[in-house]
Design a protein that fits this description.
The protein is α+β, with helices and mostly antiparallel strands. It has 5 domains: about 120 residues, Periplasmic binding protein-like II (D-Maltodextrin-Binding Protein, domain 2, 3-Layer(aba) Sandwich), CATH 3.40.190.10; about 100 residues, Periplasmic binding protein-like II (D-Maltodextrin-Binding Protein, domain 2, 3-Layer(aba) Sandwich); about 110 residues, PAS domain (Beta-Lactamase, 2-Layer Sandwich); about 60 residues, Helix Hairpins (Orthogonal Bundle); about 140 residues, 2-Layer Sandwich (Heat Shock Protein 90), CATH 3.30.565. It contains 18 helices and 25 strands. The longest helix is centred in the middle third of the chain and has 47 residues. The chain is elongated.
Amino acid sequence: MKTIEICGDCNYPPFEYIDNDGECKGFNVDISRSIAKEMGFQITFKLMEWTKAIEYAKNRDFQAIQGMSISNERQEIYSFSKEYITVFHSIYALKERTDINQFDDLYKLKIAVQENDISYDIITKKANANKPIHVVVVSNQGIALQMLINKEVDAIAGNRLTILYYAKERNYTSLLKSIGEPINITKFGAGFKKNRRDLISLFNQGIQRIRDNGTYKLIYDKWFGPQIDYIDNQIIESTLTGIVCLNNLGIITAINNTACTLLNIKKEDNILKSIYESELATAIDGYLIQKVLDDSSNTFMNEFEYTTRGEQIWLSLFLSPLLDFESNNIGVIVNLRDVTKEKKAEESLKTSDRMQSLGRLILNVAHEIRNPLTSIKNFVSLIPDNIDDDEFRASLIKHVPQQINIVDGILRDLLTYSTPRTPLPAEISLRLFFNDLRECIKIDRNIDVFFDVEEDVKVKVDRQHLWQILNNIINNAMDAIEEKGQVIVQAAKIGDFTRITIEDNGIGISKEDMSQIFDPFFTKKKTGTGLGLYITYQLIKDNNGDIVIESYGRGTKATITFSD
């Protein structure tokens, strides 16, 4: 009987590791064993430090290396079997590090990464001479985590499940937070010496067979929690709301027909795919999915517009953790509901409210204009008797233009509200746009404004509208900061969408006010007509976008999404 020697990582749970009894364990190990059994050959494992395993594989001391991330660079060295699982790699820091919230915050800081892990390749590519990162190379991710806990490094990067496995084992889970979205989505396969088509064919046949006969599912359920079974599937199909279930790898394990109908997608095209690779990425924010996976206390609720079959509908979204009998977080449940009728009913009710608001607007505008006009009138009436007074003339020249500017500003807001300009969309590089915006933002207090965007992120919108949108939201964010604080502006490409977030650590928005923030004429400021956010909302909609504002106690986050 043929024997194949496979090497791998001895410290990469739950995928492959050596337990306290010296036994080879893990998902990858079980997959390789089941393939060998199905195809009628024997297998011997040699698990060691990952760097040594790679060296042995390169030197051809072993015939295969299991659990390797498939990348273009590695395909130049190895030939790979079919992938048998998709995972993602993330960055983690301590929750107490309020100064680390995005990737750019890591520049000039220390980040621990496992040597020769795919995360090492990604981090070193992101770092450069202008944005240096001090990469601390370690032999495994357990060591990296301990260095983070000991505050020897500022952050760590690696396989999300491996980091969380070690964190749970050592009771560190509550101390960690994920930074931004996953830095990489990777597929695991078995790597072979080049031109070993016989072994690749053997493994590929084995992978297909264990998928077909149910062995793969049993192994998958053992290490990552059960997928949805027949009975559970009937339950979720019986509900009138859309339901999507994801496991702790971010893999879609179930979608009911209602969700498929709401989103106009096919079940077979999305099931068992990573959320980041599926069509659901256009409707469901993968970053929020990761937040729920990382912390079972997190839940998210939102309403958003969605285009399906050429029609705009409103969907409500609720994300909650999926817990097992021991309250372990094993995934995420996504609930979707069509609330278009409710939205239209709300709009109908708001029409009468707006008519009442119009009366309030007229009174407000009359009051705002009366004050500067009264000041101007007083100056004009004093001109005949004081025209030769140097001090009077200086005061006249200073104050009258100021009062005229106030009136002009009020009228300008009203004109923008009543006659919005048709958008002239053009492709905009957000990095260059943010550079221009940074120069024009007026900061008169102890506030830091940070901009974070990859170089190739572009959006197709009206430039003047985008300028007005971001200026208004950033200024609102700064106004919400009482003394010292920060505003973080980020942008990223998510599938066919471009997402811009503006987050501050100011006073936040009360639950009572949250439902009114986009209403015209609603304001908590001492000055202003309350048209700013309403106009911003209209401009975003005119540019095929959407906005969601979240506030949990202290701080506010505005998320703007533009579709291509």
